[in-house]
Amino acid sequence: MQKILLALLFSAAAISSHAQAPSLITDGFDALMERAHSFNPNYKQDVIKLNEEIQQKSRLLLADHSAQKTTAVKEVPIIFHVVLNSSQLDQVGGEAGVIERINTQIEALNADYNAANADSATIPPAFKSFYANIGIHFVLAHKDPQGNYTPGYEFIATTKSGFDANSGTAGSKFACSDAKFAATGGADAWDTKKYINVWVINITPFGVGGVGTPPPYAAYGGEVAFPWNEQGIAIAYFALGKQTNSSQYFAPAAKAGRTLVHEMGHFFNLFHPFGLSTFDNSDCTDDDGVGDTPKEAGPTQSKCPAFPLLDTCSNTFPGVMFMNHMDYTADTCRTMFTTQQATRINVELSNGGYRQSLLNDPGIIYNYPTSTTVVNNTALIKAYPNPASGNCVLWLPADSHPKEATLLNAMGQVVKSFKLEESTQLQHLDISDIAQGVYSLQCALGNAVAVQRLVIY
Length: 457
Prior knowledge:
alpha/beta
């Protein structure tokens, strides 16, 4: 059924111009899972067993967090490879338009992965108790693999009109693999164990919003099916970021930044609520391996239905959790991850998890440009309390000749600057006007710059 749907979408593209964004959005994850059968004949049984193992790890992780009373935010670096031809780039407002979309995309990711999305108020009371904070802070990378400064994105001009979600000539020859190699008109991945790589491209067939690769578990086909140098997410350029004015080129069902929120869930090993099936779970035998998402007969495709929505798998109140980020509803009505989804993601970021290495090099994030020497050494300065709210105190070493402290957000943008008294070791900083989040506090000390992470709540 999925292949028929994709064929119809492709036919529609052949008839109409890409100036008209698609009204029906799907992703390539179901095709990835269907393909996994060719690598593992015992796929379904092995996935069921893997889900049981992950559930056990989830229970242990929840118990450990409860014992430690920790809800620490985990910061992960992202690099966006923007691989478009000149007409596609013009269609989204050139480089400036893409940069705006990247910034709003980071905002959307951080809101949804930290239970800070304002539209959570629309979650029905029957499901609100399951609404969870995953605790991941996505930050643009600011150091490239060679140790040089990067803004967290790069622009690659390609002569290709698009990259196929179901075929290719390079690497795995699947999941837009050609976009992931410079030799085939794309952009080579940066170390996928250190960076979340996102390729912003035109995906064919027309209407596929994105393809996120899951961790390379053996049950899914391992590193043969999902090579490390292809790990990451391909996202259609019409679905990147949030629409801020009606003239921008966006798919109607993908204008709130949640296509990447959804694909990021796959990257962290979440399935669709309708499970392993390719769109058809009408016999209700499949699920997503998560205990607090109701079973679903199939996707709620690119629309916002009225609550409650009942189907053959969830035929009594409260019915289908169509507002879950891993369903196929329109962006504007996907508003929540559940507690068990959050824990399943955090298993991948814990010791032994496939995504744990993303947390190993904070220097990738805190390497901002400066005309002087940047010293990423918290021994030189100390901000406390940390986390802080309203005010904080900045401790400086004696005879450090402080000049200025600067607060930067996840995009490397200056949020606020503080003039410092050269003769004072303790400096009081007013942060009462700063929004909640994770920031970088830079302090100019003579001919050097010291950097410390500051959490504001």
